[in-house]
Design brief:
69% of the residues lie in helices and 9% in strands. The protein has helices at residues 14-22, 26-43, 46-89, 92-119, 131-162, 171-193, 199-227, 232-260, 266-277, 312-328, and strands at 283-294, 297-306, 332-340.
Length: 351
């Protein structure tokens, strides 16, 4: 394969990696393993990147649908069951699990609608593509869950201020919460295996992960509040609320960064730079190459350098071909390629 920088000479052999593992040099082993993977990605033809991504999407399409629709169906059933458990037990900890569960189906539908909108976007109305809709959906989802948690905080503080109260252990309610816990564990394990394949599935995985804690901790504090000390129940609900606010707040901040145009990972920027640099013989240098988020996907800007005597037709055709190739990559929404004949000027698009 084309390897003008002799990167393949830097690849560490399996024997060397095995020796490092035997000598328990884990950090070096991890470093060289990542280096080998990055070199392999850089030397792989861009068409192979596109083909592998398409094959992976085809292979995971059914699994992603199962995760999305399975989560929606389970959340609808659990919302009814846990609402019954909360009303019958009058436990704030159980109310914490129920409130989260009741809002899950609505949040799922918002997430699903935004995902479909991103896939079927009208490019006349949204020329930049629709991937930002996915980030907006994730932020709305996170915001709903955080707002619900604030309501529970108010009820918990009110219950603690009111003082001691007698609450009996309600077995049917605890059974419902345990059923929810087991269901969420199955969904969590399933979504965990494909969380990197789809942004919608990743948010669902985070939701199931949070629900595992909520249902497990809620069942414990509800039972402890009835059998050990009354204040454990509202205190448990308060803890659940703050955990939800923190986890969904963290998720929300991450998606805000994507909407704000956070830089793509260094590995991806290196890949784009190398592919641009080695794309055609007419390209003598790369003046600049940046990739940044446009929602979950990336926008790429590349400034090429060609000889000043290069015919306009050749310069255009090479840059257009590179732009088309970059936009074939599954992570790239838009690519912009600019051609210059020197590198001594100020960077473009800098205020």
């Amino acid at each position: 394969s084309h390897d003008p920088l002799l990167l393949r000479d830097r690849v560490q052999t399996d024997e060397h990696l095995s020796e490092l593992r035997k000598r328990k040099k884990k950090s070096l082993h991890a470093l060289y393993s990542r280096q080998n993977q990055q070199i392999d990605d850089l030397l792989k033809h861009i068409d192979d990147h596109v083909r592998e991504a398409e094959e992976e999407e085809d292979n995971n399409r059914l699994a992603i649908k199962i995760a999305i629709y399975g989560s929606l169906a389970a959340n609808c059933v659990l919302a009814i069951l846990q609402l019954y458990a909360a009303i019958s037990s009058l436990s704030l900890s159980i109310f914490g699990t129920a409130i989260d569960s009741v809002f899950d189906p609505a949040a799922n539908l918002i997430l699903w609608w935004c995902h479909k909108k991103a896939q079927r976007v009208d490019y006349k109305q949204y020329p930049g593509g629709g991937s930002k809709f996915e980030s907006i959906g994730d932020i709305v989802y996170s915001g709903i869950m955080g707002a619900v948690s604030l309501i529970l905080v108010a009820f918990s503080i009110q219950d603690l201020a009111r003082g001691e109260s007698d609450k009996e252990l309600h077995i049917p309610a605890l059974v419902v919460v345990c059923i929810a816990f087991l269901t969420k564990f199955v969904l969590f394990a399933y979504c965990f295996s494909i969380r990197g394949k789809n942004s919608q599935v990743r948010v669902l995985w985070e939701d199931h992960r949070n629900d595992l804690f909520i249902n497990g901790f809620g069942a414990f504090t509800s039972a402890a509040g009835a059998k050990i000390a009354w204040f454990i129940d509202p205190l448990g609900a308060l803890v659940i609320s703050f955990v939800l606010i923190f986890t969904w707040g963290h998720t929300c901040v991450g998606h805000f960064k994507h909407l704000a145009g956070q830089a793509a990972p260094r590995e991806f920027q290196n890949l784009v730079t190398y592919k641009a640099m080695t794309f055609a013989d007419q390209i003598t240098a790369i003046d600049s190459c940046v990739a940044y988020h446009n929602g979950p996907n990336y926008t790429v800007e590349v400034d090429l350098v060609m000889d000043g005597e290069t015919p306009l037709r050749v310069a255009h055709d090479v840059s257009q071909a590179l732009q088309d190739k970059l936009e074939e990559l599954p992570q790239v929404d838009r690519a912009f390629v600019h051609v210059d004949h020197e590198t001594s000027h100020k960077p473009e698009h800098r205020k």
